[in-house]
Amino acid sequence: MADEPQSPVSKKMKLDCPDEATATVTETPSIDASVAELRGISTCDDCIAVLLQLDQEQATALKEIVQPEEQSEPTYTKPICPICLGTFTHGNTPLIEALADKVKEVASGITTCQIHLSLPKHITARQIIISRWVRSKSACLVPPTPEDFDYLTRVRDYLSQRICQLLGVTLDTKSEVSISIILTCPQLGRQFEFPHKSPSMQKNPQAKRMFKMGPFNSWSIPNIQYLFTEIAPEDLQAQKCWPPNSPQTGVKVEQVKVKSPSVFIAGRYNKYARGITNTPLHIKGKSFITSVSEQVAPAFEKAFEATDHKFCSSGREDVDVRMLGSGRPFYIEILNPKVTSLSADTIQNIQDEVNQYPHVQFHHLQIIDKSELYRIKEGEEQKSKTYCALVWVKDLPNIDLAEKLKPYEAGRAHLTRSKRVLSLKAEIIDTHFIQLTLATVAGTYIKEFVHGDCARTTPSLATILGCTTDILLLDVLTVDLEWPPSHH
Ligand SMILES: [Zn+2]
Question: Under CATH, to which class is 383-479 assigned?
Fold first, then answer.
């Protein structure tokens, strides 16, 4: 016995079970024969190890056997593995490198990620057919269960780990950065669309139900597993799929997409000129007027190499209203950024750059955490705002204006049901003009309060004074909110 020549795989198998020497002897030739059969159709060593359910040691031993003709054969002429289509091969570094490069292209500077890989479903069909084929040649092999070698999961896990290794990124299923990769093998196309229509499946009621299934790509994995397990070898043979041969080209990287979490830039802005909107006003897709958001958001979108942005401020002023004082709190949500952070210096540079436009000025720009955003929403509803308005009065009544408005000065009298005006002061400029300074709870519409909005708002300045009034100019003086959160 000891003199018999043995392959490393057989030797390992013997060492694995020294107590059952007899059983191993009968099993040994079939494993070697099966390895040879699988290699004969260009199956890669990794697929052989999975298909024949070899353990770690046996799999390593398998790699030690180098077939004589393989030694001199350059890699590029090597046929592609008919099962994994080259995705699973440890030697297939070009595919891993190409994938890692594409991921780097769309997501630089990430530390963790989750990967969603879509693979050609042909792999499942091929795995089942070749497993059946090699087992038909050797009665000694144990019939596998589908879970024994769920190829798609194995290939997914393997590729994801290798890509992350190469990028130095931690694979984490809870990561906010999600990378989706689609690998296809267009050359194979609809190669496997026949089983449910094959002679051996004619009387199979389950296969009949599948008769109206669309293209192979849309088939479910359980359906593929069922059909290729049930179909007779003769039918596979008739389709030249017993076993399926190596494709001429391997998988193609169809798409690599990254979905990364938003970054938030907070700050305050001043609007020193009228005729500027808060967010772009598009008419038939064209923007006709300068907007606050357009002055700042694109610069950050560019710096973060993002795909889009959202601009959100604590309330908003009309196009003809200026925003003075300490400015209005706002934030920009940078969507799907490739760059995940910017240094304080870079942010300062962007701030200086956007402030070249004198009519809108930004300050305290900084990156904030998503968890801080609630403050701006809360502030919008609860915090007070101070306004200054130049009001035209048709006939200023001969009254003591200060005395008349006194009840409203400290917010003692309720101007509206929701007590929205907190204080009110008026200064007479001349017989037709007064300057109003008023503080309100967010949400009060100042223009309405001044002219009464056709008597719908009562009391209004018009009803208090008993004459027609109109608002000529309006400025926002303060928006009372501590923002950005870290700025005091
Ligand atoms: Zn393979």
Answer: alpha beta
